[in-house]
Amino acid sequence: MPIVMPIFFCLVCTTLVVVTIIDDISSAAVGLGIWAGGFIIYMLLIFDRALPSSSTYRRITHRINNNTTEWAQIIFDVMPEQGDDSEREYAIGGSPHKVFAIDAKSEALSDFIFASLEEDLVKTRL
Hints:
With about 130 residues, the chain is mostly helical. The protein has a domain at about 80-125. The chain has helices at about 5-25, 25-45, 55-75, and strands at about 100, 115. The chain has a two-stranded antiparallel ribbon. The longest helix has 22 residues, at about 25-45. The chain is elongated and about 50 Å long.
């Protein structure tokens, strides 16, 4: 009995697709075009033996990924989780000497001042 359900489901889906293609070819052509475009994009950008094996592709996508990550961190005011010092990757700027601290003397949140300080000068005052 369990094998009957997948076979029945496959027949129903195939029937629905074939009837739609026969009944309204223009709507089906749009759907088939979208499917074909997705398949081409998959084969070029996702499939392991296609472009991702190229060093140029990996270099370009790495640069795009870093730039969009940096942009998102600035726009959305977020930072990645940081592990211990040996695993830490500095998000913006890429330098361990750039540290951003909050001047805690201010009374309101809008008055916080972000200053770029050397790592050994950073002190948290809360």
